[in-house]
Amino acid sequence: MHGTFPSQELSRLVREGAITSNAGIALEQVQPSSLDLTLSVEAYSMTGSLLPLGGERVRDLIERFARYPISLREPTVLVRDNVYLVRLRENLKLPAGVAAYANNKSSTGRIDLQTRVICDRNPRYDKVPEGYAGELWLEIIPKSFDVKVRAGDSLNQAIFYAGREIVARQALQRLHGIQPVLFTPQGEAIDAHSALYGAAEDAALLMTLDLDQDVVGYVAKKSLKPKPIDLAAIGQHDPDDYFEPIRRPKDGALFLSQNAFYIFSTYEYVSVPPEYAVEMLPYDTSAGEFRAHYAGFFDPGFGFGAKGEIKGTPAVLEVRPYEDDLIVRHRQPVCKMAYEKLTAPPDKLYGVGVKSNYALQRGPRLSKFFRG
Question: Fold match between 3-162 and 169-341?
Fold first, then answer.
């Protein structure tokens, strides 16, 4: 096999013991081409963010740099701007040639909750090397709000692959000619040639900012400190306590404040056919110092439906300017979508027979934790 694993291959890895958990792997953890990872009871408050060097275990870092241990057996509040390290329930014993990468889930990215996977002897975030055997840990940094978590909560996801295959420029153009993957808000296919960005072997579809809607986005209320967002309380939080809506700018431009957190959406509607998955990547660091997303993975079926009847879905952007205040404008390039080939179509699709909170999102939708 060569490519990213679909749901049935993930289930096979579970059956064969390559992915295990003391709590068992629940059926709903297996998504069309990703696996939801879950928190264990073991957690630590850390003095800062750090990675193991070659030969170091994550537990070596905990022994040196942890402030104090925390139990997640009961609901526990993680305080914003603090760094936490939590052991994940899932353990790996990957076959030779099989590796993984990780991403925030959409719901946690949209509340400015930064998560990054760490594993032994690997000085890289969110990358699990080929054939890795051992524990997985999750670094958690609440950036805008306190959050309440407990063992079993899922904040991020892992994507497994054998020889990851990013779709090259010509193949992506051919795909779009057969089954359009990029649309206008009116449902018209966008010319792939004009949207393609990057070199021949690492091409992606360019996505731009949509500031031509009644509500173009939301900004987190930093000056207030509302109650923690409880990750088990779906649809129970009042969005007005946490976010302020941003109306359509009269001149098509917005001023973004340094280190504020914003929710926006793309002008383009993206579609992910069953044989593919998509990773959202930064557009270009020379285009401005801001992070355009936390949750950057789209399962097969997103914006597609069962048989291509959905003409795409906009991607939601989690934007944080870093070094400077920024002025952004309508249709400004913000990110790119890289398609990767699956080893086979999955046995289930996003939004089709799978509980999917954002399958029909239109515009800058807030996280599932909020009402309405």
Answer: yes
Torsion of CA 140, 141, 144, 148, to 10 degrees: 40
Enter the tokens of residue 142: 């609440």
Task: Give the separation between CA 25 and CA 150, rounded to whole angstroms.
Answer: 17
Return the domain boundaries, the chain. Answer: 3-162, 169-341
Calpha distance 23→13 (Å, rounded): 16
Beta strands in 55-119 (DSSP E): 66-71, 76-78, 83-93, 99-104, 113-119
259 contacts 288 by C-beta, under 8 angstroms = no
CA dihedral sign, ordered 42, 44, 231, 12:
negative
Q: Where does 204-360 show beta strands of DSSP type E?
A: 204-208, 215-220, 229-230, 243-247, 253-256, 262-270, 276-282, 290-291, 297-298, 313-321, 326-329, 333-341
Whole-model pTM?
A: 0.93
Distance (Å, whole) CA 54 – CA 123: 7
pLDDT score at 286: 54
Tell me which residues of the chain have a pLDDT lower than 50: 289
Query: Do 270 and 313 meet the contact criterion of CB atoms below 8 Å apart?
Result: yes
Residue 255 amino acid letter: F
Q: Which DSSP string corresponds to 214-249?
A: SEEEEEE--S-----EETT-TT-B-GGGTEEEEEPP
Alpha helices in 201-355 (DSSP H): none
Q: What is the per-residue pLDDT for 354?
A: 64
pLDDT for res 194: 80
169-341 carries CATH number 3.40.50.720: no
Alpha-carbon distance of 50 to 57, in angstroms, equals 12
How far apart CA 75 and CA 197 sit, in angstroms, is 45
Report the candidate in 36, 220, 215 with the shortest Cα–Cα distance to residue 112: 220
Q: Which CATH class is domain 3-162?
A: mainly beta
pLDDT of residue 256: 92
Instruction: Give the integer Cα–Cα distance in Å for 33 and 275.
Output: 10
pLDDT value of position 196: 82
**For tokens 């051919």, what's the residue?**
174
